[in-house]
Amino acid sequence: MSPRRFCQVLPDTAFAPFGPDGLSAGDTAWVLTSAALVLLMTPALAFFYGGLSRQKSVLNMMMMSFSSIGVVGIIYVLWGYSMSFASAHTGGSDFWGVFDNPFSLFGLSQLTEVREIDGVEQFVSGGFGTVPAMVWVAFQLTFAVITVALISGAVAERMRFGTWLAFAGIWATLVYFPLAHMVWGGGLLSGSEHSIASWIFGYDAEAEAANVAPIDFAGGTVVHINAGMAALVLAVLLGKRAGFGKMAYRPHNIPFVMLGAALLWFGWFGFNVGSEGAADMIAGAVWINTTAATAAAMMGWLLVERIRDGHATSVGAASGIVAGLVAITPACGSLSAIGSLALGAVAGILSALAIGLKYKWGYDDSLDVVGVHLVAGLWGTVGIGFLALDTGLFYGGGFSQLVIQIVIALVALIFTAIMTVVVLFIVKPLGWRISAEDEHTGIDETVHAETAYETV
User: Fold this and answer.
1) What is the model's pLDDT at position 129?
2) Is residue 373 exposed (0-12), middle (13-18) or buried (19+ Cβ within 10 Å)?
3) What is the structure's pLDDT at 110?
4) Parallel/antiparallel/unpaired status of strands 120-125 and 5-8
5) Strand order in the sheet with 120-125
6) Among 226, 126, 216, which Cα is nearest to 176's?
7) CATH code at 5-266+279-448
8) How many CA atoms does the CB half-sphere of 179 hold within 13 Å?
9) Where are the domains of the chain?
10) How far, in Å, CA of 378 to CA of 159, rounded?
11) Nearest Cα to Cα of residue 7 among 24, 25, 22
């Protein structure tokens, strides 16, 4: 039998390749490595959330992250990628700019078709730039997984595990996959001909893009605003924990929190730098911007703690790290290093102040998903309008970029809020919450029949 090798036949809508056969081994290796780094972020999140939880709920908190890999990993292969990116491969049209056909690339078999070309059996698939399509699928799968896992921090200690599993699959299908298509797959929130940006600012046919295109490099809207808004809806509709506002909920294992933050920071280089899709100069700039913003956010958070509380904490440092990573995610390919420092510092300050709002407004966001991911995600998305090189307001670009960044943030907020309510009522017959008795005993013991620590 003739030897097989990978070959790429790009659809008309895919990005232009370079190199003799349209593929780059270096770029492909980097995106595969990035996919592994982003997958690591979900177990890292399990440590981060698990450490922040009370001892009697740590296993359940970690299981919610790990189970997201199981649920979303299955449905992404079956229909998730197809709903997000099918038209980029098939050349077909999407549904109202909101989602692609879930059956066009169902099971992904179309991306691994084997043909005989010039006497050699080759894998033929549409790709993205210099990266084979299946590699891009792997990368995008990990984004879907961690977005779902992020939401779980808002419902610690009280949501039924079976309901969470059902919610995870339905929410990914009805909320995450459509929003990924809208932003990255050529839908309503992209720079395509039929997007909101084109309606507002016009479409440049020669450039094949909106005159002012939205910027979301690695997931400010798709991941963080999306997860943060869903977390707020869940926290409000599920209600408060039994002792909320009356007792202190202290992290049971701060070293877990620090370990989780460290692994998240490490994995985030795959998240942001991998989104460039190539091992090039822009990828290097994204690495620097990610580090600069994260460092500045950590220091901004600690400054708020020192002034407000009189001491800087380890949990504050870890939370500041996450706030900075969140904020720079949509902006990392558009800012200078100085701009990234400014974006990160503001994110750390805003998030440190925002986490107290749950006590003022009375919603039990258990592990501050809203205060960190929603607030920093909104700031990172809107901040592009001020700080983006060339197009940002502070760089002489006028108000256009700021306007479109605000628009896409608002659309993402409204879409996610409405659809998350719909999903919650779909799963309501399963029961949203564990019983008050089980909550008092501890969800680890009553639901999983396990305890994190055995004492003799």
Assistant:
1) 78
2) buried
3) 82
4) parallel
5) 5-8, 120-125, 113-117
6) 226
7) 1.10.3430.10
8) 36
9) 5-266+279-448
10) 26
11) 22
Q: What is the mean pLDDT of each run of 10 residues along the chain (456 residues)?
A: 30 36 85 98 98 96 98 98 90 92 92 61 63 92 98 96 98 98 96 95 89 96 98 97 84 97 98 95 97 98 97 98 98 98 98 95 96 98 97 96 98 98 98 94 95 82
DSSP 172: I
pLDDT for position 13: 35
Q: Supply 253's token pair.
A: 């294992």
- Output helix, strand, coil percentages for the chain, rounded to the nearest 5: 65, 5, 30
- Reduced to 3 states (helix: H, G, I; strand: E, B; else coil), residue 332 is coil
pLDDT at 19: 35
The total number of residues written for the chain in this structure: 456
Per-residue b/e over 418-441, b at no fewer than 16 CB within 10 Å? Answer: ebbeebbeebeeeebbbeeebbee
| Residues whose CB is less than 8 angstroms from the CB of residue 118 and which lie 6 or more positions away in sequence, other chains included | none
* Residue 454 DSSP symbol: -
Taking the C-alpha atoms of residue 178 and residue 365, their distance in angstroms, rounded to an integer, is: 25
> Hey, is 121 helix, strand or coil?
strand
CA 249 to chain CA mean position, Å:
27
In this structure, what token pair is assigned to residue 164?
Answer: 């969470």
Question: Where does 311-399 have alpha helices with state H?
Answer: 314-328, 337-354, 357-361, 369, 375-387
Q: In sequence order, which residues have a C-beta less than 8 Å from that of residue 189 and are 6 or more positions away? A: 179, 182, 183, 195, 196, 197, 214, 216, 221, 408, 411, 412
Name the DSSP letter for residue 156: T
| Cα separation, 382 vs 416, whole angstroms | 17
Q: How far apart are CA 235 and CA 238, in angstroms?
A: 5
